[in-house]
Amino acid sequence: xxxxxxxxxxxxxxxxxxxxxxxxxxxxxxxxxxxxxxxxxxxxxxxxxxxxxxxxxxxxxxxxxxxxxxxxxxxxxxxxxxxxxxxxxxxxxxxxxxxxxxxxxxxxxxxxxxxxxxxxxxxxxxxxxxxxxxxxxxxxxxxxxxxxxxxxx
Length: 153
Description:
By secondary structure, this protein is an alpha/beta fold. The chain has helices at residues 14-25, 42-45, 61-74, 89-98, 110-121, 129-134, 138-141, and strands spanning 5-10, 30-36, 52-55, 79-84, 102-105, 125-127, 150-151.
């Protein structure tokens, strides 16, 4: 790829941040252009060149969804991939309806994360198949507000 997908990585644990950054940068299609230690630093690090934000929602539930909605509103071309340990359909639905483009558990392989990044960058929505398989009611709980389809590996 001529122009790599520029990623803003948000992770509060230094060891996890390093592993994630190294895993992402193993793929020549991606470049971690900015790193933040908390979601509160996103707006000071975010540029108009950022393509994808990868972040957990470690703050209060309400603040996390406000953050996703604000990013979608102020930076509509930037896609947001939630990388978290929470996999209940309620959190997924709220995050996607707030503006996140993807939802992936932290224990997933670098290959699946790469797949998710590429798909949300193309304008699709991605939710880990593990999550959708474990929650058969997931699709009925999520209200699609875009013309894109739910993409799973």
